[in-house]
Amino acid sequence: MRGYVYLSAAAxxxxxxYVISKVxxxxxxxxxxxxxxxxxxxxxxxxxxxxRHQPWPRDRRTWLWYAAVGGVGYAVSxxxxxxxxxxxxxxxxxxxxxxxxxxxxxxxxxxxxQVGGRVWTAVIIALAGVGLVVGGDVxxxxxxxxxxxxxxxxxxxxxxxxxxxxxxxxGCLVVAAATWAGMSVLVQRAESRLPASESDPLxxxxxxxxxxxxxxxxxxxxxxxxxxxxxLWRILTTPEALGSVLYLGLIxxxxxxxxxxxGVQYASxxxxxxxxxxxPVVGGLLGHWTLAEPLRLTFCVGGAAxxxxxxxxxxxxxxxxxx
Length: 323
Prior knowledge:
Layout: H1 2-25, H2 30-51, H3 60-87, H4 90-97, H5 100-110, H6 117-134, H7 141-145, H8 157-193, H9 196-199, H10 201-227, H11 229-236, H12 239-264, H13 269-274, H14 278-291, H15 297-314
Helix pairs in contact: 1-12, 1-14, 2-10, 2-12, 3-4, 3-8, 3-10, 4-6, 4-8, 5-8, 6-15, 10-12
């Protein structure tokens, strides 16, 4: 049960993150914001490790595991999600990235782990629920308008470019979903292959974030150069931007990444990633409460389907005690 609580809490935090991110991304470039999130999170996690008198691992093999988790999950997956959402839509981003449990189940089968019919049933029901929650605004109007570009000889080059950019965005979202599932599998493998002190969720999260931070830094630097450092500094010193960065770094990164890595160690990768389906549900509820966004009947039905899917998955036997 503990693992389900961790996973639900992480997914709920990320689901509510879009309200804060909406404010921050209006004024801060995406990868600069991601770099700031990781910087704040790393400082906090390093301080917690120091207070707990928990040393950083020195073994090279351990850091290779951390690099794999951070590179695949915190650099490639999050970066691909940013690009994919920017080139398509937030609705499509929510739908495609929550397909992560499908990839996790396929990876589990490939590695010899048994994935029962009950898990697949839970995945299908939950993803159908996400589709209803997200609604019909999945494909942007511009992409629909240019959908005939491949068959219409009179289509302009700009329309064809928009279509290609849209499908490139879809590809990025698929990569984001697959690599997040891969990261979850890597976390489980690290937990079984590293000493307990080095696979501790807090230490593992901090170590993996180091890799993510290093890989994101060059892209963030280029975005900062494009905006201009004086202008960026003026933006970051406003109370709204500063508060958003601190929240995203402390809660959405340090705390949520720790909770996710802790939860993944208690459940199979397929069942763990299924909890990502809670993100659009929580995001929609918070959007309704804080931004007065309307809740459709399809949202309510879809949210119920997500909960049913999670309930079915929770009834399967875990790979490790969850008491």
